[in-house]
Amino acid sequence: MHVDQMTADINTDEALLEQLSAIALKAGEKALEIYHSDFEAQTKSDDSPVTEADRLGEEIILEGLSKVAPAIPVLAEEAASEGKIPELGAEFFLVDPLDGTKEFVNKTGEFTVNIALVRDGVSVLGVVFAPALGRLYAGALGAGAWAQDIAKDGSLGTRAAISARPVPEQDLVAMASRSHRTPETDAFLETLKLKDFAAAGSSLKFCRIAEGAADVYPRFGRTMEWDTGAAHAVLSAAGGAVRTYPEDEPLAYGKKERGFDNPYFIAWGAGKA
User: Fold this and answer.
1) I need a surface site. Which of 112, 212, 230, 247 has the fewest CB within 10 A?
2) Contacts of 75 (CB under 8 A, 6+ apart)
3) Phi and psi (nearest 5°) for 238?
4) 189-191-195-196 Cα dihedral, nearest 10 degrees
């Protein structure tokens, strides 16, 4: 690829990232409105909870994507759960309108709106918005990652570049799921020389590593591509990596043969790519 073409791609991705951020903010606003209402949670066929925020958020995102990039197919959680899976090419969007529905239902605030762009199996850019926490994360490969505070009235704070810190040999800070811990996860954490441990819901675990607040997040349980795509892109753009376990290969996307679920993986700070 010529340098001028590479620059053009990065500029295009940066422009798209701005558009995706605006869409995520709009979906997050609707999610927050429902979060503060007397909503009800239902159960899907896989026994996972779903709320009106999941459905309406996805509608907002799909409508937004149809305007900014109508030619790019979208693999979205709620549509996929109903068997609506489009023919995916080398480039497609991944959408999870409400990652952390359990956290949403339990009112912890740790739920996120997630939009990613996958290109040739790699999540190349993504947006993660935590409406209840007022925090937006975004990143694109080659362009870096940033975070931004969003006030309750919707006003935007100053953006700050974020970067993953080098993973130390000891005194690591580990992230793990608040709702999905497994014995395998605990066993792996015991092999590390940890200084501290922090639990968090949804895709925020990746983002904490991306902004240099933690070093490692092992996930030895089932996740879907839309659960990880956006935050994976933010972490990669910030200098971190997500590797499959135990194969130690980059986590890839578009795994139709697996039904778009992920193998076990470990998210790392800098130096593990």
Assistant:
1) 247
2) 85, 86, 88, 92, 93, 94, 95, 225, 226, 260
3) -85, 0
4) 10
Question: For every one of its 273 residues, what pLDDT tens digit does the chain have, with 9 covering 90 and above?
Answer: 333 333 445 458 999 999 999 999 999 999 888 888 877 777 766 657 667 778 899 999 999 999 999 999 999 999 998 899 999 999 999 999 998 878 888 888 899 999 999 999 999 999 999 999 999 999 999 999 999 999 988 889 999 999 999 999 999 999 976 656 778 888 898 899 899 888 888 899 999 999 999 999 999 989 999 999 999 999 999 999 999 999 999 999 999 999 999 999 999 999 987
Retrieve residue 72's tokens: 């790019």
Distance CA 41, CA 105 (A): 7
Contacts of 101 (CB under 8 A, 6+ apart): 41, 48, 49, 50, 51, 54, 111
Q: DSSP 3-state assignment of 201?
A: coil
8 A C-beta contact, residue 116 and residue 23: no
Task: Please give the DSSP secondary-structure letter assigned to residue 258.
Answer: G
CB neighbours of 78 closer than 8 A, spacing ≥ 6? 50, 54, 55, 58, 97
Q: Kindly provide the b/e burial profile for residues 126-155, where b requires at least 16 CB atoms within 10 angstroms of the residue's own CB.
A: bbbbbbbebbbbbbbbebbbbbbebeeeee
- Determine the Cα–Cα distance for residues 250 and 247; give it in Å rounded to an integer: 9
Torsion, Cα 55 61 67 71, to 10 degrees, reads: -90
